[in-house]
UniProtKB/TrEMBL annotation:
Pfam entry (one): AAT
Keywords, comma-separated and alphabetical: Transferase
UniProt xrefs under NCBIfam families: C45_proenzyme (NF040521)
Lineage, uppermost ranks: Bacteria, Pseudomonadati, Pseudomonadota, Alphaproteobacteria, Rhodobacterales
Domain Peptidase C45 hydrolase: residue ranges: 98-302
Entry's Gene Ontology molecular function annotations: transferase activity
Protein name per its UniProtKB record: Acyl-coenzyme A:6-aminopenicillanic acid acyl-transferase
UniProt cross-references to Gene3D superfamilies, sorted A to Z: Penicillin V Acylase, Chain A
InterPro entries membership: C45_proenzyme-like, Ntn_hydrolases_N, Peptidase_C45_hydrolase
Amino acid sequence: MSLTFRAVSETRPGPKWAGLFADYRDAYLRWWAREGLTGRPTYMECRRALQTHMPELVPIWEKLCELAGGGDMEARFLSVYCPPRYLTGCSQAIWSGDEPLLVRNYDYNPQAVDAILLKTGWLGRQVIGTSDGLFGLVDGMNDAGLVASLTFGGRRETGEGFGVPLILRYILQTCTTTAQAREVLRRVPCHMSYNVTVLDAQRDFATAYLAPDRPPLITHAAVATNHQERVEWKSHARSTATVERERYLLQRLSLHPETQEKFVSAFLRPPLYSLAFDRGFGTLYTAAYRPWRREVELFWPDVAWRKSFDHFAEDGVTITYPTERIALR
């Protein structure tokens, strides 16, 4: 299966964003309604949740709703409040060298991703990140050099809260330091268990273990895979090799110093690089975020794709994955 990643830049929400949403609209709304509309919050519940927890995003949300056609379903989807369950794999780590660097693998289903690297200037803050639902982000960086990235936390529980990609968007729109991001992660509810790692230009970093049924735990962990303090979903842990990946990364960070290039290249090989596309968590890309350079580079085994705030060409790259046996979202 082939997938084309596109780089799109639009300072304020406008025709480019509207065209992208039109392309994905039917798939987005089918996913949103797959468990029945009675299980999703109403428009007013979504609005109140945003106003309560992320008021700065409300004007952007309203503009995106307008560009999406102004419908009830579109607005509820774009709020990312109490969405359907979704699971990813993913590994991420902070390099132990002097320059701040976060590297991550995004392990998911090629049929269920935006495949868009989006550069925006919403609310006067430039952000580059890998889009999810064209509002949220699964990883990204802002023009202050703050980086945020997510992995699934390895638990089944769901609750009232936001999909974690919108929490990443909110952090990158409103924070400039890891200290500020910690406060957001403590107070904004997340609807499932996820691990969020943040890194700033001063090399301050944190990993938050978010959950819908217990308080967030903010740690100084440099590595996150697909469990939190301990394995709680054993079958998922076995199938994703989350413990093995965590141990491998911790070993690399503790044994001896290595160059950025060697550290990044480790993510392009097993046990970090996953070929489990038939189970919905093959590695779709490796991302390296460099806050000092304000640069992100996406990697595949034979391809590198670099973007920065100063140099962001609107081009694309087509990647062919090694199997046609892809699980549905």
